[in-house]
Amino acid sequence: xxxxxxxxxxxxxxxxxxxxxxxxxxxxxxxxxxxxxxxxxxxxxxxxxxxxxxxxxxxxxxxxxxxxxxxxxxxxxxxxxxxxxxxxxxxxxxxxxxxxxxxxxxxxxxxxxxxxxxxxxxxxxxxxxxxxxxxxxxxxxxxxxxxxxxxxxxxxxxxxxxxxxxxxxxxxxxxxxxxxxxxxxxxxxxxxxxxxxxxxxxxxxxxxxxxxxxxxxxxxxxxxxxxxxxxxxxxxxxxxxxxxxxxxxxxxxxxxxxxxxxxxxxxxxxxxxxxxxxxxxxxxxxxxxxxxxxxxxxxxxxxxxxxxxxxxxxxxxxxxxxxxxxxxxxxxxxxxxxxxxxxxxxxxxxxxxxxxxxxxxxxx
Length: 364
What we know:
12 strands, 364 residues, two-stranded antiparallel sheet, alpha/beta, 41% helix
């Protein structure tokens, strides 16, 4: 058998992961909502932006590190929360957490992780954040927050763009259901995950989703925890302002990876107006469409304090477990450092708005 060539970029890992994953698992992890317009635009919008580098700048040393809520990260790329990672590899979130720690960055653990949040926390030697939904049953939400605090998580990312689950046609065509061994282990104290049927599990989760959620939920959550609360799922500048007014410690520009409302802007298009609305009061982060170090550079230039990458590290996980995630992060960090040097920016602080041509604020 001809050996696979060593992947040299994130796209190579995507191609290898597609070959190795079951079609149903691939569709679930890779797919988006409806016609997947937003899914494609998250990537395409970065490619429409151009960089205007400075020359004759001393870049003999380049420093890509930054600090978020007191924690140093080696480069401005975090690992976005992704559900059910054991679909990609048996070690799932444990491998991802270990890889994030080795890379010197922060992994954000999904409420729908395949391993209990405590077990994932023990696998991560470095700082970690927890992604949370505010459920109809606030006691369930409260319990998850208490467990995250006790396990040493450093921040809560409250996802606010899922009042109902998006229409994901790939899953319908594939008749996708979770394999019996893949379950949301964080709900084991609320639901019989082993003896109960998958239908019972889905009905339980659907019943927890609260379509009546309002900004009151942010106020409530802030009263439940001393951890920083970042509001994830912001696309509009007025919503960004309201998040800050309700005490959010940070804002994450996100369209749920194109998995919710199809046809919304790419996150990099929405970023400038959100940054302007926030006015430096809290950090603004971005996820969606990051595939190159130059994408990271463009997001930083347009005002992001850092970005989160999702699908690419899952492709690394599918190909080679923890080593694959580490390799994806190593490739991306090398690209970020090279992009900084070639752009004439020895540090992130020197990445300015005039580095990017295009990117006028959406919704402004």
